[in-house]
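Can you give me the bound-state structure? Components:
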Amino acid sequence: GESVGLHLPTLSVQEGDNSIINCAYSNSASDYFIWYKQESGKGPQFIIDIRSNMDKRQGQRVTVLLNKTVKHLSLQIAATQPGDSAVYFCAERGAAGNKLTFGGGTRVLVKP
Amino acid sequence: GAVVSQHPSWVICKSGTSVKIECRSLDFQATTMFWYRQFPKQSLMLMATSNEGSKATYEQGVEKDKFLINHASLTLSTLTVTSAHPEDSSFYICSARPLRRGVTQPQHFGDGTRLSIL
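Here's the bound-state model for the whole set.
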């Protein structure tokens, strides 16, 4: 069932600093992982993905790290900007599956 | 690229009304689309997987007769909330994954439909 009134963990970061958002995933058989950014009233926006045969992948100002040993995924945002303020979700896909399972989300607030 | 359009973005209607939401992939084809539901300050919960030309696959606890899904083409899936009641009020979001052989593709999301049932 769905819980009501969950409080999203919040990361407050100073503009220009680096942000690190963490995610623990549950399925050791998951083979594909994605980070999404969701702004208020909008759908999730793709940021970066990584396959399970990699442990690091870099994009523009973002880096995803995957530690399969402890089932941990992180998103690093360099030089965080006000436009980075949003809720960030990690998602995992089970092996040979279509479906994504989303994490609970982290709210990032960028202070000017 | 990989734009997904969802319509309408906002619906308010009376209890008992049926509401249809459209999800279109604008610049790619998708044999599979997905429908999610999201409550305030919560994560996305998958409701069903929409398969082009065949029946949708519903997640446990989602009533297929309540949430009718049709995926008649490679660029369009629709979700109809039948006889909607206030407890169906939520943010409904669709996604689609580009069809490309041999390459893992992420799901791309529409901007959601906020459904309010009075």
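A couple of observations. DSSP finds no helices and eleven strands in chain B. The CA atoms of residues 31 and 74 of chain B lie 6 Å apart.
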